[in-house]
Amino acid sequence: xxNPIAEILxxxxxxxxxxxxxxxxxAGRLRLHPLLDRMIMALDDKDADVRATAAWxxxxxxxxxxxxxxxxxxYDASFSVRSNAGWALxxxxxxxTAHMVVPDVVDVLRDLRHAEARHMAYLVIMRIGGxxxxxxxxxxxx
Length: 142
Prior knowledge:
The chain is mostly helical. It has helices at residues 4-12, 17-29, 36-42, 48-61, 67-73, 79-95, 102-110, 115-128, 131-140. It has one domain (4-140): Leucine-rich Repeat Variant. α4 (48-61) runs parallel beside α6 and α6 runs parallel beside α8 (115-128).
């Protein structure tokens, strides 16, 4: 591999979802921060496994830039995507500062139209913990 980033980018653009997912997993495992935008874009892939792997890869990168996209992924139809996005948000909230994650996740918790997204938001907030999280759960989780 002369240029691993170029080769991974080529695989991320592949029509084969399995190749896209593997490329995202490798990019995450290698902590290839230059591919952050591609990982975020992959959260909108038509294939659920690709989206789930993108959320997992973003978890490994641990960049606060990914918070809005990960919060949006809490609404995904696939449990695997929601779960991986949720864990990524938990880890970001624990490693960085909860104040960067909790307010956006509280917005999902307040959204009564999406029960599955709300449930994942509840789990994320519970895992992050803290006063803001406890207050949000008391107010919005019924």
